[in-house]
Amino acid sequence: MEFSTGISRFLTKGTFVKTTRAVALGVSLLAGTSALVAPSLAMAEMVFNRGNGTEPGSLDPQISEDVNSSTILRDVFEGLTAEFTDGSLIPGQAESWTVSPDGLIYTFKIRSDAVWSNGDPVTAQDFVYSWQRGVNPTTGSEYSFLLYPLQNAQAIANGEEKDLSKLGVKALDDKTLEVQLEGPAPYFLGMLTHSVAYPVHKATVEAHGEAWTRPENMVSNGAFNLIEWTPQSRIVAVKSDSYWNKDSVKLDKVVYYPTESTTTELKRYRAGELDWTYEVPNDQISWIKENMGDEFHVSNYLGTYYYGFNLTKPPFNDPKLRKAFSLAIDRDILTSKIVTAGEVPAYAFVVPGVTAYDAVYADFKDQTQADRDAEALKLYEEAGYSKDKPLEIELRYNTNDNHKKIAIAISSMWKKVFGAKVNLVNEEFKVFLETRKQKEVTQAFRAGWIGDYNDPNTFLELWLSDSGLNDTGFNNPEFDSLLKQASLEQDAPKRKELLMKAEGIFLESNAVAPIYHYVTKRMVKPYVKGWQSNVMDHIRSQYITVEK
Amino acid sequence: MAIDMEIKSAMDLEPEVKGRSLWQDAFRRLLNNKASVASFVVLITIVLIALIGPLLHSHPFDEVYWDYIQSAPDVEAGFYFGTDTNGRDLYVRTLYGIRVSLLVGLVATGVSLLIGVTYGAIAGYVGGTTDNLMMRFVDIMYSMPFMFFVILLMVIFGRNIFLIFAALGAVEWLTMARIVRGQTLSIKNREFVEAARAAGVSGFNIVRRHIIPNALGPVIVYVTLTIPQVILIESFLSFLGLGVQEPMTSLGVLISEGAQQMESAPWALLFPASALAIILFCFNFIGDGLRDALDPRDR
Amino acid sequence: MFSFILKRLAGAIPTLFIIITLAFFLIRTAPGGPFDKERTVPPEVQANLNAVYHLDKPLYEQYGHYLFNVIQGDFGPSFQYRDFSVTDLIGSGFPVSLTLGLTAIFFAITIGMSLGAIAALRQNSAIDYAVMATAMTGITIPNFVMAPLLTLVFGVYLGMLPVGGWGDGVSQAILPVVALALPQIAYIARLTRGSMIEVLRSNFVRTARAKGLPERVMLTRHAMKAAMLPVVSYLGPASAAIITGSVVVEQIFSIPGIGRYFVQGALNRDYTLVMGVVIFYGTLIIVFNLIVDIVYGMLDPKVRMG
Questions:
Q1: CA-to-CA distance for C95 and C100, rounded, in angstroms?
Q2: pLDDT tens digits for B108-143?
Q3: Which residues does residue A446 pair with via DSSP β-bridges, in sequence order?
Q4: Residues of C in contact with B235 (CB under 8 A)
Q5: Exposed/middle/buried for B176, CB within 10 Å: 0-12, 13-18, 19+?
Q6: Scanning A163, A327, B197, C240, which has the fewest C-beta atoms within 10 Å of its C-beta?
Q7: Better-predicted residue by pLDDT, B45 or A4
Q8: Complex ipTM
Q9: What domains can be seen in chain A, in order of their start residue?
């Protein structure tokens, strides 16, 4: 057909296809029998069609910063450590490691059978190169700060130290890597599963520049190899023959579909084009639960949705008022009627269940909502307002249906309890981020935080007085010093105590009103097996099987 | 330019009739056009309902009814059109949406009318190099990716209903200016204009008193077609999340929200979409009727 | 003719220059930058990023730098899709948008004009009303309602056609083409009907009829040609818009065209991508306006090109 050849010609022109035998076969079959050969191909090999949110920003491990590219990178690359299906830490490219008694020196032994997809062995030098690349200012890595536990990392990133070799990582021999930390960081091993700590193949990066991540150029060390990347359409990876643990990999091929609209993603899933969705549309959750509840999977996620208050300006520089507004949010109604996937009402900032931690809650957690409302009203009046002399505030959020729904619901609660006048201000995302950061006009605002790694530190360090993420202006020397002490503390129980005390102080201030803890929610076909929900939502295709 | 040619050639054919009798004739013909008259009646009714309806209904447009989240139309409870995902009454919200959408349509068209007519009349009347430069500018503006600039403006200055008016008006005035200029060119050499000029009437007054009133026919037709277009653009902006601020709403916002849940809550799409369709239908019929009525060759 | 085209193309250069300048400074006035995320990066990392992309230089210098590069055909790297240059992204997306757009325009013209002509010939008959009512409905239902409705019915309920995606066969193109073509069919049918009625009343048709020219010959050879004029002038800008992709259709059918980059680029402050798409689109509009004028000249002997 004239039309179809036209399309396929355009496709190959605009696509970055690596012509391996598998693809060449696919293309020739496609051309030979016109359309829709895909199903019969699927019979022959095990293909996993994975919905993957928006188009990944980058598949360069040191540059990637978004969730959707991380998902792909976890399949295509592997760090020194890795995670099993339940999210527990397992050895990756390193077969073993030792830690010095003071917790400052880690020595990793890299597997002898760890090789790159082009056959080169993965060496300790590769890691040295990659981590130096991660903190090198000219790389432009957004997540370089995750490597800050390494000695001199921050100094290199901010340009004080020009000599990259001063970074606290060196190759003792081809397969032995020694890492020197600034201070004890119990989350360090877990952080190594983040893409910024993955190795990259030096020769490839240097030969191709920014285009090294194209399928035709990329050399990787993970369970799958990239073979196609058509922006906004799909990314295809096939099982790697060179991966050290290739026997654990059952899939022949993973196809990642970037799908911006969750409604579209759900339809593609229902039409059988996807086996797995990245998300589900919030508006349709009750419908989904009713009609396809068996395939709907919800699980806790390491994140907190909250409203922040601007502590630097009236009216929310008054702690009583902040507490009143936090108390008046009926989190149970909100999570049962507005966000309905199974989100957990939040009374803490650090997500309960995070490792090495015991949850700390706000003091009103066990009160009934009626008691909370009564106390809220009392505090509101003590702050100098009343039904007759109502407070008028702005509640700011960024353009998004979910944020909008929540803002409408909460403003209605505030109106009901206080008679306060709440003006909703909806700003486009980047404008919103800017206003929030400036702390000039903001009063109450929406925010959310997803932990970078499974440790309370990733939640609490936000509220250091000098943190760039501290959009509330919370400034408490005791909190700062507790966190500082914790970062130097080598004794795990003591560290935990310090961090819990810090969170207690933070919650006491009511600088933020935690609303709910995030959940991941997705549709998964029943024939997709070998996966488990975990708090980081790191689900590697490596362990998945598709048994149609 | 192509469109100018079209308009000019159309105007060449127009017989020279005195303004008043032309309008009377046109009005008579318009009354004979049943579709137009019916549309006019329907439109007025809709406007009245949108203005009065909320006053007669006990539900405020921004009240959250916690027990009626996303519930189907229920006449007994007073939710004639059902509720949205926040449990707000969609009947009242649809009426508010009609108000806002019509307002956006009217004001934006008004803005485009103001700029377009002034600009076009000046260009056409002054003529020569000025005309050339002014129309060159319009050509340049035509090559602008306008939707993109509108989006950028919304992004920079935030979601402001007045900005929507201004931005959409700024997009729509170009064609208006071309139409008026074409008309002006054909009118300005007529006897009555020459006479006025000979009598020493100032250029400004000639444009205001003679040119603009005589160029009005095609302009009115264009206006009735612009209003629905603006309403549609507004709904497109709403789809992109750049619509009016909550808790205010527009038909565009309601429809794009409804489209997200067309399966789980069809009522949320059905009612606002029907309202939009009816309004657009009406404007189109009225526009067609006016065009026929103002077309002198139909006599 | 040739010199006319050359003259017009030369005239396009200042237009493009104005577009570039306006867009460049407008997007830079927008608050926030390309690397602002929910997770704010530490200040030193932000500074490094700005340095890597030369965003730390004064604005006029960046502008000069940008103009200089554009003249050489280099549109720079994308800030959002950091592995790709803007040229890569447009190069991979445009063929898709073009294929889709041209197909939709082809159907819009053939179906729209036929319907419009039929309606005009049977003015005020049941057929006329039916066609016009359908056309009007096509206009009044926004794309973002029609497209999901189509996918729901034909993709999910009937399972006849794929819901989304691109590049795996013709069937994936059917629904998006329909969604793109529908409103255009409606507009074109209305335009054709209007001008056709006018043409049928005109003197030359009356003369032709009086002379006994067969109705069919008269219609296809003369009336249709004259009736096409307004359609042609409508199609110019409309084609440019359709070919550069529709955000709505691309998003709903997950099609990898370039329409989405307009909106995404602006929202993400992907300065270079936005500029690239704006320049690309501006050029297309200019070219299409030129084509319209040429076609117009061929159809209407009254218009002479000078």
A1: 8
A2: 888 888 899 889 888 888 888 888 888 888 877 777
A3: A307
A4: 142, 144
A5: buried
A6: A163
A7: B45
A8: 0.88
A9: 78-199 (3.90.76.10), 299-520 (3.10.105.10)
